[in-house]
Amino acid sequence: MTANDMTSNETAKHAAGPTGTGPTIDQETLLQNETDPLTHTPVHLMELEGVGKHYGNIIALTEVTMAVDMGRVTCVLGDNGAGKSTLIKIIAGLHQHDEGTFKIMGQERKLTSPREALDSGIAAVYQDLAVVGLMPIWRNFFLGSEITTGRGPFRRLDVKAMKEITKNELADMGIDLRDVEQPIGQLSGGERQCVAIARAVHFGAKALILDEPTAALGVKQSGVVLRYILQARDRGLGVIFITHNPHHAFPVGDRFLLLKRGKSIGYYDKKDITLDELTAQMAGGAELAELAHELEALGSHGDLAQELEAEVAETAGQLPH
């Protein structure tokens, strides 16, 4: 099977089934049968091994290894400047890696454009979503991939078909909208994220990259997006969830890659780490201790220094050994 086979129309239609809802994955059975998070399938949907990226003398990413499988959520966590954006740009075809190997369905690749990534079944949903706020939901759903009818000078948009498909696809993802004619700008941030996810699923994505989808959302809307991430997972997609919030990642994630200053500081299967340990890994006990000492030396922030010292002690007790 080649990477291009992933997005052929016939394969997509066959995988989707008669109702277009796609296969569902029995997560409990999958997790119980898994013995090794890196070798439980002969061929990964995507696999990165020792991947790195340099910009001149600047090392943006180095020695990153991870795998993505169908029906699984791989969470990539890290603070600003950790290398998350560089990693997803490599996977989405915006940049090419300088070292290591990147495989899609077992075939080594170096993607040269986002279009090549889309043709390989990789879709990215960015924070800005690339939607036109004043256009109806159905126009945004098919933006750049409109369905037409007729021939020659009589060729025109098949508005009826696009509206119906949009409504059905959103319903399959559990998104109930009263009217697909309303401007997408009237939707909440969480609903817009979900429309973007449903669009990627409809156009044949097998791997879905979500770039900080909950970063600018409140608690309730974040919960909505997390629920739709699980919907995408249960339909068989391999999901890469980029976030800096371990409390959003842990409930939906199956694997966790932690990045810091372009390097991997941990790659865990869910059964091997707790939420507290994941949070502690991201918090960075050494940095907190250094800050506490600096504040104590200044003398004017004693209470804050004591709080930080207590947090350092708590963090040290949570780090996995």
Question: Descriptors for this entry?
Answer:
12 strands; four-stranded antiparallel sheet; Rossmann fold; 321 residues; alpha/beta; 2 domains; disordered N terminus; globular; 12 helices
Inertia-based shape:
globular
Which radius of gyration do the C-alpha atoms yield? 22 Å
Give the helix level as a range of percent. 25-40%
Please, how many domains?
2
Instruction: Give the class from helix and strand content and strand pairing.
Output: alpha/beta
What is the spatial order of strands in the main beta sheet?
A: 6-9-10-3-11-12
| Tally of DSSP β-strands | 12
* CATH topology grouping of the largest domain: Rossmann fold
Strand content: 15-25%
Corresponding CATH superfamily of the largest domain: P-loop containing nucleotide triphosphate hydrolases
Query: What's the pLDDT, averaged over the residues?
Result: 78
Q: Could you explain how this protein is built, in words?
A:
- The protein is of the alpha/beta class and 321 residues long.
- It folds into two domains: 3-273, P-loop containing nucleotide triphosphate hydrolases (Rossmann fold, 3-Layer(aba) Sandwich); 284-321, no CATH class.
- 39% of the residues lie in helices and 21% in strands.
- The protein has twelve helices and twelve strands.
- It has helices at 9-16, 27-33, 84-91, 114-119, 137-141, 159-172, 189-202, 219-234, 246-252, 275-283, 285-298, 302-318; strands at 46-55, 58-68, 73-77, 99-104, 107-108, 122-125, 148-149, 156-157, 207-211, 238-243, 255-260, 263-269.
- The strands form three sheets. The chain has a six-stranded mixed β-sheet, with helices on both faces. A four-stranded antiparallel β-sheet has the order 2-1-4-5, covered by helices on one side.
- Helix 7 (189-202) packs parallel to helix 8.
- The longest helix is centred in the last third of the chain and has 17 residues, at 302-318.
